[in-house]
Write a structure and sequence with these properties.
This protein is mainly alpha-helical and 151 residues long. Helix content is 61%, strand content 0%. It starts with 14 loop residues before the first helix and ends with a helix. This is CNOT1_TTP_bind domain-containing protein.
């Protein structure tokens, strides 16, 4: 599937997939035998090269981590790095699609990270990004919100 054609605004996931995503977060935040964030991130990384629904959820989780600031410091940097590395993959690959989905999930906060946006926009495949996502990244290069959010 062409990443420019991905529209997650109408995406729905089965109860099984939603339950699995919720279980990851419950395991992260439980007081008894919690799943270390680093282990969770490693587990999510193993999914990123697949096209299954679970992997789309994983990409959205990565984007959600960025958007919501769920992880901090080194873990946050690792999540950002995985996403920026993914969009540098060959266009049309599962890894590239993973990066696009993750960025779409956090596009509203990209303006907080001008250096990341500049890195992303200098990517040779940036012109292949969905138009709306390109506008968020371009605005983010200047630390600004995309026009869509200012209306």
């Amino acid at each position: 599937m062409n990443p420019a054609q991905i529209d997650l605004s109408k995406a729905t996931f089965s109860d099984e997939i939603q339950g699995e995503a919720i279980s990851y977060f419950e395991r992260l935040f439980t007081n008894t035998n919690p799943l270390p964030v680093s282990d969770f991130i490693k587990q999510m990384i193993t999914f990123r090269d697949s096209t299954s629904t679970k992997d789309r959820v994983t990409a959205e989780v990565f984007g959600g981590f960025i958007k919501e600031g769920v992880v901090e410091y080194l873990h946050f940097a690792a999540v950002l790095r995985r996403v920026t590395d993914a969009v540098q993959a060959k266009v049309g690959t599962n890894l590239f699609t993973f990066g696009i989905i993750a960025l779409q999930a956090c596009k509203e906060v990209l303006h907080r990270y001008p250096k990341v946006c500049t890195t992303i926009s200098s990517n040779r495949s940036f012109s292949k990004f969905p138009a709306e996502l390109r506008s968020y990244v371009n605005a983010g290069c200047n630390g600004e919100l995309a026009d869509e959010l200012l209306l």
